[in-house]
Model the fold of this input.
Amino acid sequence: MRERGSSFGGNTTFAAPARACFDSLTPREREVLGHVLSGQLNKQTAVELDASERTIKAHRANLMTKLQVQSVAELAHLAHEAGLVGRQSSVISPQ
Done:
């Protein structure tokens, strides 16, 4: 796993590098990311995006690999560092 500093207390030192990690995601992976961060199950995401659950699992695995995270908790932390989620865990649509 890659080294990251803490963003506790509003430190934005790591926001730019964290944000840069998300640039490698495809538009569809970013869509899936938003659903993962909002707490949806793969099956729910599949229905909303009109895709198979297997396809969603593949997108999710790809984005986790690209972002070098092992869990949704790590993913949420990285997204927070990048400024993709607000203080109240509302997902900001990646652009």
About this structure: The helical segments are 15-22, 27-37, 42-49, 53-66, 72-81.
